[in-house]
Amino acid sequence: MADDPYTYPGTDTLRNKLGITDAATLTAAERQFTLARGADAARQTFPLTADGYRALHAHLFQDLYAWAGEDRTVNIAKGGSSFAAVPYIARELDKRFGEVAAQSGFRGLAAGEFFDRLGNHINELNAIHPFREGNGRTMRHHAVQIARDAGHEMRIGLIDPKTWMEASRHGFLTGDHRPMSAALASAALEHDVVIEPRLGPAGVAMLPPRDPPAGQRYRITLNKVREELERYLPAAQKEADGQLRNLTALKVSSKTIGAARTELAYLRHPKGPLYQSHLLTQLGIRQVDAVIHKDQTPLERVREIGAALGVQINSQQQVQLQRAVRALEQPALPPGHAPGQQRLAALFLKNTADANRADPRLAPAQALVDAAASKARDRGDDDRAVTKIEDATRKGVAARIRTGGKLDSESLGAADPGRGAPNKDRTRSR
Fold first, then answer.
1. Backbone angles phi, psi at 81, to 5 degrees
2. For residue 333, what pLDDT band results from cuts at 50, 70 and 90?
3. Do residues 244 and 258 make contact, with C-beta atoms less than 8 angstroms apart?
4. Which pLDDT does position 322 carry in this prediction?
5. Bridge partners of 78?
6. Helix (H, G, I), strand (E, B) or coil at 199
7. CA distances from residue 173 to 167, 176, 282 in whole angstroms, order as listed
8. What is the mean pLDDT of residues 307-323?
9. Pairwise CA distance, residues 82 & 341, whole Å
10. CA 348 to CA 351: how far, in whole Å?
11. Using one digit for the tens of pLDDT, what is the confidence trace for 204-235?
């Protein structure tokens, strides 16, 4: 990284307390010191707060870096994609740990739901990447502590490095935390019964075999499919999990239990229904025919949507499916693109103004929109002009959030289309 204050001039080696200027030697020293400090950290409890997370990083890297435990002051990227921009790090961490606290540190959950939430938490921490170095090791120790405190013991040594790296990459680029959840669950000391999916073309998960669905089919767009899945999929997963537990307790036939396991695996799989809707969009398909109605439970609704997606996927040529899968899993990202910032910008545009004001990450951005609207009203612009200014400012602010740019009124001045222009009413009065 050019002009990086964290490295020795002319090198990629981080400045360190040991004075090591060779990258390979520093990597070996990092491994040695963090292993020792990590063993000690395993006997401690760090608060589940942003400052507690910083304290864990400080403990692990105290022998190496003067800035251990401090938020980075430079923007960093990997593979052409940027992690959270510096101005957003503190707010993002506070928000993330606020959500963990609101969920009681994921305590009292069955293993499946626990690791699903833990995977999402770690995936979001990875997108923030608050430290200049050592984020991965800090995340793994942090995950083990949460698991220990929640009664789901796991070991760092059981996390497969290759699986971890792939889950990190996939989650960072797509926001899909399920591979990370699976990587963490594989390190648990006590495992639930392994639930294997039924795989179809291109490795996508499929529902268990059944007769064709009966009932009136309705044509729905894939955009509507995604809205339905975002609304009903979490509840469907819980319903399917409860259904499987009930069937197991009743000791019904192994065939019935097997079908329930396959269905639950389909709902949880990274290449399950939501992924498949994006896959079909990549293939140029715009709609599917599904049997849906208002009296269905979430599981029944998602099941029918999944069946409709499966029909379309099975009708595609293997070569085209594989090409679409590669396009989805290796997205072309422009320089400086930050997936975490992209999602934050999308949330800002989707939210109401009140929701943005209530979110500490987005309140400063909404304040700029409010200020632009207030200024327009003060100079006498009519309601239509004020609305246009608000919309333009929101888009300008969202663009700044995506790239991690500074949020200030001067840099957004060009977003005010009404600046210096007479409004419609004043023009008519002339």
1. -115, 135
2. very low
3. no
4. 87
5. 81
6. strand
7. 10, 8, 16
8. 91
9. 9
10. 5
11. 888 988 877 778 888 999 999 999 999 999 99
In angstroms, the CA 56 to CA 62 distance is: 10
* 265, 196 contact by CB (below 8 A): yes
Q: Give the Å distances, CA to CA, from 409 to 206, 345, 390.
A: 50, 17, 13
Q: Buried (b) or exposed (e) across 222-245, using 16+ Cβ within 10 A?
A: bebbbebbeebbeebbbbbbeebe
Alpha-carbon gap, residue 135 to 54, rounded angstroms: 10
**Average of per-residue pLDDT values in the chain:** 86
CB-based contacts of 308: which residues, under 8 Å, 6+ apart?
A: 217, 288, 289, 290, 291
**Residue given tokens 């010191």 in the structure block:** 33
Got the DSSP string for 265-319?
Answer: HHHHSTTSHHHHHHHHHHTT--EEEE---TT--HHHHHHHHHHHHHHHHHTS-HH
Q: Is the pLDDT of residue 26 over 80?
A: yes
Cβ 178 vs Cβ 270: under 8 Å: yes
Residues across the chain: 430
Distance between CA 160 and CA 178 in Å, rounded?
15
With CA atoms as reference, report the closest residue to 376 among 324, 316, 417, 323. 417
Residues 96-129: pLDDT tens digits? 999 999 999 999 888 888 998 999 999 999 999 9
20 residue type, one letter: I
Determine what percent of the chain is predicted with pLDDT higher than 90. Answer: 52
Q: What angle do CA 65, 73, 180 make, to 5 degrees?
A: 80
To the nearest 10 degrees (0 to 180), the angle between helices 222-250 and 254-268 is 140
Burial tier of 115 (Cβ tally within 10 Å: 0-12, 13-18, 19+): buried
Paired tokens of 271 = 């290449």
Long-range Cβ contact pairs of 383-392 (< 8 A, separation 24 or more): 384/424, 385/418, 385/423, 385/424, 386/418, 388/417, 388/418, 389/415, 389/416, 389/417, 389/418, 392/416, 392/417
Find the mean pLDDT for residues 38-63. Answer: 95
For residue 336, the surrounding DSSP H or E stretch is none
CB 130 within 8 A of CB 72: yes
Residue 74, number of CB atoms within 10 A of its CB = 11
Question: Residue 220 pairs with which residues in a beta bridge?
Answer: 288
- Is residue 73 within 8 A of residue 86, CB to CB? The reply is yes
